[in-house]
Amino acid sequence: MPGDLKDGRIVIVGASLAGLRAAEALREEGFTGSLTVVGDEPHAPYDRPPLSKQVLLGQATADTLELPMRRDPEAEWRLGVRATGVDLLAKQVLLADGESLPYDRLLIATGTRARPWPNPEEGALDGVFTLRTREDGQGLAERMAARPERVLVIGAGFTGSEIASACRELGLEVTVAERGPAPLVGALGGTLSKLAAVMQQRAAGLRTGRACAGASRPCCPRLACCPLRAG
Ligand SMILES: Cc1cc2nc3c(=O)[nH]c(=O)nc-3n(C[C@H](O)[C@H](O)[C@H](O)COP(=O)(O)OP(=O)(O)OC[C@H]3O[C@@H](n4cnc5c(N)ncnc54)[C@H](O)[C@@H]3O)c2cc1C
Fold this sequence. Notes:
- By secondary structure, the chain is α/β, with parallel strands linked by helices.
- It has 2 domains: 9-108, FAD/NAD(P)-binding domain, CATH 3.50.50.60; 120-230, FAD/NAD(P)-binding domain, CATH 3.50.50.
- 26% of the residues lie in helices and 23% in strands.
- The chain has 5 helices and 12 strands.
- The strands form 4 sheets. It has a 4-stranded parallel beta sheet with strand order 3-2-1-7, with helices on one face.
- Helix 5 (185-203) links the parallel strand 9 and strand 10 (205-208).
- The chain is elongated, with a radius of gyration of 21 Å.
- The site of flavin-adenine dinucleotide has 24 residues, from helix 1 and strand 2.
- Flavin-adenine dinucleotide (FAD) binds at residues 13-19, 38-41, 48-49, 51-52, 82-83, 109-112, 131-132, 159.
């Protein structure tokens, strides 16, 4: 492949914000070669921030969040298939469906994922959610619309705090468990996070310095209670 990046084969793994914008930028910069974008989600790139805000409040549905394209990147979209590895010598991306995609340049834009609950059996209980994808957002929104007695949010970072805030806007009781000394401490630092703690303590039942010791399931596949322990 010529070093000027004008042609050849580029494969982008990750069909979300970064993958889409990279594909657009390559075309804007005059790349005329073949462009393939691989994504393990079955959807075209979509906007995640509304998942913890408008979707939970019932102001948008998760299937309306497709990201606008600045220009058509004229890419081949391989959606709903996971990239499982790279053969560096053969310069090929290996896909879960057994296919492999040859490349001259490879961009890995696989983003982040929600940290899974440590015990998979507990994490699979009815009523336990993580919030990362369209499906997560729609599922959680539907459950919140059914007005549960109380919502327990584990983690008071941005996403957890936004979920707690949506619960309060919907008039739902909510407890937030955070093992750090204050909400948003990683993002805001000590001083501002103390202010956030005062605000969250007033609005939601905030328990800082508390980690969840496990999700209990006394007699049915539903989450019933979740003991908190110090630290
Ligand atoms: C609920 C929520 C609320 C948010 N709110 C805000 C906000 O208010 N403000 C803000 O600035 N940011 C917010 N963010 C963060 C923002 O959405 C991310 O910064 C942004 O999505 C990052 O884009 P990305 O393309 O780098 O990664 P991601 O959006 O994580 O996309 C990576 C993609 O790669 C796919 N992938 C991973 N591994 C593979 C593989 N092996 N093969 C194929 N595909 C793979 C993933 O499934 C995913 O589709 C929020 C995120 C969430 C989840």
